[in-house]
Specification:
Oligomer: single chain
Distance between the termini: 49 Å
Structural class: mainly beta
Shape: elongated
Radius of gyration: 16 Å
Order of helices and strands: EEEEEEEEEEEEEEEEE
Helix content: under 10%
Strand content: 25-35%
Length: 182
């Protein structure tokens, strides 16, 4: 049975140069679930079996280079880095604020009603992704690739010069700064 709002353990490996608890490259066989996780570096951690990032709050955490394909990545993420992460076919949800997805693979990922605030998706791969009814506020998409997916019902606010090339993505009822995308 999981207790709600548990804290993440202290690293036996000390801290990274950035001052984060060092869990880089560890093997996780269970989901990080119902936890409050702050200042942890899980870059290149191996998520095996049914492990995922599910129903927890993450603040100032690194998930660079992790492989979370076909897994849950949801609840709340603030100031987190997913640079180069493999999130293809992942179930992504709830809220991401000031997160960096530069170079991440989000192909075939699914998000519904998720909120992304000031997130960077530079060079991210969104091919065949389904991000429906999502909200993107002041996010940048420089070099991001969208094709064969859906952004139906999603809203984009902020700088329009940083929006992605849509390709043949379904854009039904998509709004950019309050205007329906033609």
């Amino acid at each position: 049975m999981h207790k709600k709002d548990r804290s993440f353990p202290t690293s036996p490996f000390g801290q990274t140069a950035d001052g984060l608890e060092d869990f880089r490259g560890i093997v996780l066989t269970e989901s990080i679930q119902y936890m409050t996780v702050q200042g942890v570096d899980l870059s290149y951690a191996q998520f095996v079996d049914a492990s995922s990032l599910n129903t927890s709050t993450f603040t100032n955490c690194y998930f660079n280079g992790v492989k979370l394909d076909s897994r849950y990545v949801n609840r709340e993420f603030s100031r987190c880095s997913f640079r180069g992460a493999k999130l293809n076919s992942a179930r992504i949800g709830k809220r991401f604020e000031d997160c960096d997805f530069t170079g991440s693979n989000l192909s075939r990922a699914i998000a519904n009603d998720a909120i992304f605030i000031r997130c960077c998706f530079s060079e991210a791969n969104f091919r065949s992704a389904m991000f429906m009814y999502c909200r993107f506020e002041d996010c940048s998409f420089e070099g991001a690739a969208f094709h064969n997916g859906s952004l139906a019902g999603s809203r984009f606010t902020g700088e329009t010069d940083l929006l992605p090339a849509w390709g043949n993505t379904i854009l039904d009822n998509v709004n950019v700064n309050g205007d329906r995308l033609a």
